[in-house]
């Protein structure tokens, strides 16, 4: 029988501005848009919606992979919505977003992994929000670097691909993913366009050791990754991989200091940190034009 850990006080948030939260949710519903905020049961959802921001999730709401940490629905995916890119552009305009983050479910069923849809989404955002910066959080595309080039040619400002956890836990946490392939994707992205910032993220609290986390940092820097996020894993349900430990904020600060010493241009490290949480802060603090 697994032991249920008591949630510490530093993982408590107050919900405020319910009217704004409901307005943001209604806009997204009216445009038939999915968000990772809802799909992944993000603990920052209400805070972000209250600020009239969200992380858009394209390619449907059902993932073809069986990652054991993720709350996103899994199974047989829907048909692509051809109007989704334009609706995201419209939502960005109505919300007044200055920095837009777009992610997706993984679609191993699509010949291009959804690359063209990503590119179209970038085009629509730029068409309707010409001054907004754009960050894409993409799947591994099964290592198809032609598809990666399709995405990079759309010229996002930031290309994010999460490494998620340490290599020793991959078979348990990400059974259909490959650690080396994810590192290679980040390296290839820089080779395709060195002017685009690259970013990756890792969860902690799954039983990883400090030295393993530091080795991931080194591997990411060897792949020329610019930005790193480190956050607390929160177990979505009993069916997901078990949480082993709540990491104290002081340890997150140690991770941040160590990562910065290794050469990352920006590091966000804390219990509530997620790839897209306050993502614009990273661009404000690095050499971004």
Could you please describe the fold and organization of this structure?
The chain has 289 residues and is α/β, with parallel strands linked by helices. Helix content is 37%, strand content 15%. The strands form two sheets. Strands 1-2-5-6-7-8-9-10 form an eight-stranded mixed sheet, with helices on both faces. Helix 4 (84-95) runs parallel beside helix 5 and helix 5 (115-128) runs parallel beside helix 6. The model has no long low-confidence stretch (mean pLDDT 90).
List keywords for this structure.
alpha/beta; TIM Barrel; eight-stranded mixed sheet; two-stranded parallel ribbon; 15% strand
> Fraction of residues in helices?
25-40%
Mean pLDDT: 90
**Total count of helical runs of at least 4 residues:** 11
Characterize the biggest β-sheet.
8 strands, mixed
Structural class: alpha/beta
N-end to C-end Cα span: 53 Å
Assign the CATH architecture. Answer: Alpha-Beta Barrel
CATH domain topology: TIM Barrel
What is the topology, as strand order, of the major beta sheet?
1-2-5-6-7-8-9-10
Which strand-content bin applies to the residues?
5-15%
Query: CATH superfamily name?
Result: Aldolase class I
**How many β-strand runs?**
10
Please, how many domains? 1
**What is the element string, with H for helices and E for strands?**
HEHHEEEHEHEHEHHEHEHEH
Q: How are the SSEs ordered, and which strands pair?
A:
Layout: H1 18-30, E1 34-35, H2 36-39, H3 45-50, E2 55-58, E3 62-63, E4 73-74, H4 84-95, E5 99-104, H5 115-128, E6 133-137, H6 145-152, E7 158-160, H7 170-173, H8 179-192, E8 197-204, H9 210-222, E9 227-232, H10 249-261, E10 266-269, H11 279-285
Parallel strand pairs: 2-5, 3-4, 5-6, 6-7, 7-8, 8-9, 9-10
Antiparallel strand pairs: 1-2
Helix pairs in contact: 4-5, 5-6, 6-8
């Amino acid at each position: 029988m697994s032991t249920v850990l008591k949630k510490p006080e530093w993982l408590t948030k107050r919900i405020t501005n319910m009217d704004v939260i409901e307005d943001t949710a209604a806009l997204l519903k009216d445009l038939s848009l999915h968000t990772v905020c809802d799909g992944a049961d993000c603990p920052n959802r209400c805070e972000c919606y209250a600020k009239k921001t969200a992380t858009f999730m394209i390619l449907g709401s059902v993932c073809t992979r069986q990652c054991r940490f993720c709350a996103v629905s899994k199974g047989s995916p829907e048909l692509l919505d051809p109007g989704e890119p334009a609706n995201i552009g419209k939502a960005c305009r109505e919300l007044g977003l200055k920095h837009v983050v777009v992610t997706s479910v993984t679609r191993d069923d699509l010949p291009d992994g959804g690359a063209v849809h990503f590119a179209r989404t970038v085009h629509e955002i730029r068409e309707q929000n010409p001054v907004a910066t754009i960050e894409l959080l993409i799947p591994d595309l099964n290592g198809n670097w032609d598809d990666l080039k399709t995405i990079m040619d759309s010229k996002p400002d930031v290309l994010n691909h999460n490494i998620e956890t340490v290599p020793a836990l991959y078979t348990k946490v990400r059974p259909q993913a490959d650690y080396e392939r994810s590192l290679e994707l980040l390296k290839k992205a820089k080779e395709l366009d060195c002017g685009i910032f690259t970013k990756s993220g890792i969860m902690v609290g799954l039983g990883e050791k400090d030295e393993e986390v530091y080795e991931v940092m080194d591997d990411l820097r060897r792949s020329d990754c610019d930005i790193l996020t480190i956050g607390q894993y929160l177990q979505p349900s009993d069916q997901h991989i078990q949480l082993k430990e709540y990491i104290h904020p002081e340890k997150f600060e140690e991770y941040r200091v160590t990562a910065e010493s290794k050469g990352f241009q920006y590091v966000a490290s804390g219990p509530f940190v997620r790839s897209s949480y306050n993502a614009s802060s990273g661009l404000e603090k690095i050499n971004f034009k």
